[in-house]
Amino acid sequence: MFSFILGVNRFILFVLYLSLFLFIYYFLSFFWSKEVSFKKGLLLRDFLIRITNFILGIRVTIYGERPTVQGLIVANHRSYLDPIAIISQVHAFPVGKKEVESWPLIGYIGKISGVLFVDRKCEKSRQNTAENIREVLSKGYSIVNFPEGTTDILPTTVNFNYGSFVMAAKIKSALIPVAIDFKEKTDAFVGNDTFIPHFIKCFGKLTTEIKMTFFPPIYSEDPSYLLNTSKKMIDEELIRFRKEWDNEK
Q1: H-type helices in the chain, by residue range?
Q2: Any bridge partners for residue 139, and if so which?
Q3: Residue 76, C-beta contacts closer than 8 angstroms, at least 6 positions apart
Q4: Closest Cα partner for 242 from 150, 145, 153, 158?
Q5: By the 8 A CB rule, do 144 and 92 touch?
């Protein structure tokens, strides 16, 4: 019962402070240029992430060195929390599913802070996203992408989609693998999970523990090498995370 009450209270607080700051931003954006609105949107995103991590009890343990070069960050995918956790540590723009764009509050934050929404089933949408990725990288920012294309809770990753690695090889961008996992397997957002029940269950705990590893950048003009190397690194790290957590019991 305590966990349910805690989860519900956190959800209500989450919605209230998110709504307040987004309303203020929306009002002020009428007086800003497009460029100023974008910069303010990034500042708002980073501020809200810090508040969210504190209120929801999110604890992230970092391994490796945070990247000092911009590039294409590729990570395994467990939950809607993955991009939030990653961009709380490094300034980057996530690639997200088109459906998320329509989510109340979350979708609006994404739109004002540079999230690249893609309909993976639409060829034109994928092509437009690829061009947007190229443009963002050329401006000195990093991109966060999840090449699995969906969330899962298997011990290691499912098959990676090829597109991210073709792009990185083609434009000779740094590829930065990232492994991310949750101590509690039930924190993964998979299958038929829906947002509100999952949120209440996940954040009904005092803390949500996440481990994340940033690997050194990889450079290659061979997409297969980039894919296989990053997948192997991430898979081995996911296994290590789980062993460490199992040994704590």
Answers
A1: 2-28, 34-56, 81-87, 106-112, 123-138, 163-170, 195-202, 223-248
A2: none
A3: 82, 146, 148, 157, 178, 179, 180, 181, 234, 238
A4: 153
A5: yes
Angle in degrees, 0-180, between the axes of helices 34-56 and 2-28, rounded to the nearest 10: 170
- Is 90 within 8 Å of 174 (Cβ atoms)? no
- Taking alpha carbons only, the member of 143, 135, 141, 89 closest to residue 115 is 143
CA distance 16 to 10: 10
Among the listed residues 63, 95, 61, 87, the one whose alpha carbon sits nearest the alpha carbon of residue 182: 61
DSSP conformation class of 206: S
Long-range contacts of 128-136 (CB under 8 A, 24+ apart): 129/95, 130/163, 130/167, 133/72, 133/95, 133/167, 134/167, 134/171, 136/93
Other C-beta atoms lying within 10 Å of the C-beta of residue 16:
10
Can you tell me the distance from the alpha carbon of 181 to that of 153, in angstroms, rounded to the nearest whole number?
A: 9
- Cβ atoms of 168 and 186 closer than 8 Å: no
Whole-model pTM above 0.85?
yes
Dump pLDDT digits (tens) for 33-68: 988 988 888 889 899 999 999 999 999 999 999 999
Burial (0-12, 13-18, 19+ Cβ within 10 Å), 113: buried
Residues 6+ apart with CB under 8 A from 216: 64, 65, 176
